[in-house]
Amino acid sequence: MVFSKDTLQFFKESKDITLSFEQKEKNSQTVHNAWRKHYHHIKHSLFLGWYQGWDLHPAQIPVRYIATYSYFLEKLDQMTFRLKNFLKSAQGTVSGNTFDDAATGLGLLNYFIRAYQCGAITENEI
Predict the structure, then answer these.
(1) First and final CA of the chain: distance in angstroms?
(2) Does this model's pTM top 0.70?
(3) 11 within domain boundaries
(4) How far is Cα 69 from Cα 66, in angstroms, rounded to an integer?
(5) Domain count, the chain
């Protein structure tokens, strides 16, 4: 019971505490660095094929959306070209230095399905 009273008293008194400009700037830098690191981790996971994330804090959700959308949208033109090229020939194709066979064609199709499911692209863009 004493702990609860002490805690309440601390929060009541701490309302008058303000941070200096330097402290606010340091906090802002720390948050932005954490978002940047989280963004790169998400993009790396998506590159490796791990599409499901595990965000533990609501502040991570906007970064998850930005990283996921950018991952799919950055590669959209390249993947569209590869899938169209593959579907035209209905056999293994070479796009640049990349060989696409039936299994890769399925992977390309899954790319578009996942991009649509997360909202990065619309049905009209497929």
Answers:
(1) 61
(2) no
(3) no
(4) 5
(5) 1
